[in-house]
Amino acid sequence: MKVHVGMAGLLVAMVAVTVLLAGPRSVAAKAQQPAAATAEVKVDNFSFGPGTLTVAVGTTVVWTNHDDIPHTVVSTEGVFKSKVLDTDEKFSYAFTKAGTFPYFCSIHPKMTGKIVVQ
Amino acid sequence: MAEKKKDELLHDHNNDGIDRRGFLKCMAWAGTGALCIMQGGVLKSYSLSQMSQMGGKAPAGELSFAQISDSHMGFNKPANPDVVGTLKAAIDKINGLSTKPEFLLHTGDISHLSKPEEFDTVDQILKGAMAKQVFFVPGEHDMLNDDGKQYLERYGKGSKGAGWYSFDQKGVHFIGLVNVLNLKAGGLGTLGHEQLEWMEDDVKHLKSSTPVVVFAHIPLWTVYPEWGWGTEDSAQALAYLKKFGSVTVLNGHIHQTMQKVEGNVTFHTAASTAFPQPQPGKADSPGPMKVPAEQLKSVLGITDVNYVRGQHALAVVDSTLG
Q1: Are B69 and B44 in a shared domain?
Q2: Which of A37, B58, B103, B151 is the most exposed place for a label (fewest CB within 10 A)?
Q3: Measuring CA to CA, which residue among B153, B193, B159, B189 is closest to residue B174?
Q4: What is the pLDDT of residues B161-171, one digit of tens each?
């Protein structure tokens, strides 16, 4: 009886602890996707660096303008289009489909780049 | 950096054709305030001091206007933290010209980020010009985020399409073109089919003796394609102007003075009132070029244009702000 209750109590405690430990993670698993990967493109000196960036499906690419002149990030196929980015401003786009995505700066069209999503 | 040229007397050339050495000398002087007038195919050159001795009479003619460009209102980086001040200095310079310009041309990049307050500030500063009329064409910095809707609302009255138009002053035909919209990846400036068709029609009935001035932001000749300094379909536009005896093309965008003469066409780019850019290929990229603060005014400038009836070409004179 005492032992029985003790065992049951221990079991309950163990289950409770297990639930407590498992709880947040299972809640998280339901409410969130696995942590999204991000990749960086540095915009500087009238160029995108790297010029070609290869990422996995589901990656969010973040372009940051380090140049002292504004630039834009515009997909040549109309997939994404940033507003004008002044120095230190950023633009992000999450690539959910595989493919090759050429883009350019619409202010300085000689600036071109490519995101390859695999 | 720009070499210092002495303000000295140049020689008249009494040859039948164009003296190449004199011609090249003229071109080199253009950035520091020299006057090259073509008279019947003969190039005559005058320095600014020579002109002032003549009491401003020789180049003064029937039409006088000034060009400013690339004010980039809103720019505030080290290359020039005070673009308001330098634009005001440019207006003061224009107001001080011996032959007062009747109107101004602004060849674009009025604003830096197409912000309303930037346009407002430029409009305010331009009110200080004695010449009350200003004609604009947009630069790529004026059409950000809205494909030029705001630019058109502010400056596009009476224009067609993206803001092209023409007008006449004292027998000179002016054509304002827009070559900064719908730029393609890897491309140069572009005029587009609709604008070219309009232009062909616009000049069709003009007499070939009409002097023509074309103004647009990006150069209409290929200055340096690696940096996008050119217009893809300008050859078509120039073909429509072949019949004219005098064509002057005024551009901006490259933030330095440059000139080229091809037959009856004189191409000319103006300095910026905001910041200079490097010469073609002389830097990694065409970004703002920092110079020592005391030299800044010497690499910014305005352009003064005079037309004398009977002269072949318009007289185009650049002067720096300091």
Answers
A1: no
A2: A37
A3: B159
A4: 999 999 999 99
Q: Binning pLDDT at 50, 70 and 90, where does residue B19 land?
A: very low
What are the chain A neighbours of B144 within 8 Å (beta carbons)?
A: 70, 72, 83-84, 107
In whole angstroms, give the CA distance from residue B169 to residue B26: 27
The model carries a pTM of: 0.81
Measuring CA to CA, which residue among A5, A11, A41, A14 is closest to residue A116?
A41
- How far away is chain B from the Cα of A48, in angstroms, using its nearest Cα? 12
Classify residue A1 as exposed, middle or buried by CB count within 10 Å of its CB (0-12, 13-18, 19+): exposed
Which pLDDT tens digit goes with each residue over B213-223?
A: 999 999 999 99
- Which DSSP category does A30 fall into? H
Specify the pLDDT at position B40: 39
Together in a domain, B41 and B77 = no
Regarding whether B300 and B227 lie in a shared domain, the answer is yes
Task: Kindly list the domain boundaries of chain A, sorted by start residue.
Answer: 1-32, 38-117
- The identity of residue B50, as a single letter, is Q
Instruction: Please judge whether A110 and B140 are an interchain contact, meaning their C-beta atoms are less than 8 angstroms apart.
Output: no
DSSP state of B15: -
Q: Candidates 3.90.950.10, 3.40.30.10, 2.60.40.420, 3.30.70.20; correct CATH number of A38-117?
A: 2.60.40.420
Q: What would the 3-class secondary structure string for A70-108 be?
A: CECCEECCCCCECCCECCCCEEEEEECCCEEEEEECCCC
Asked if the Cβ–Cβ distance from B140 to A107 is below 8 Å, we say: yes
On chain A, the residues whose CB falls within 8 A of the CB of B114 are 84
The secondary element (H helix, E strand) that includes residue B197 is helix B193-203
pLDDT tens digits, B22-63 = 444 444 333 333 344 434 333 344 444 444 444 444 444 589
- Residue B105 CA: distances (Å) to CA of A114, B215, B312: 39, 8, 21
B82 and B157 share one domain: yes
Amino acid sitting at position B40: G
- Nearest-Cα residue of chain B relative to residue A77: B185
Beta-carbon contacts of B31 under 8 Å, excluding residues fewer than 6 positions away, are B2, B256, B257, B271, B301, B318, B320
Residue B242, class by beta-carbon neighbours within 10 Å (0-12 exposed, 13-18 middle, 19+ buried)?
exposed
B2 found inside a domain: no
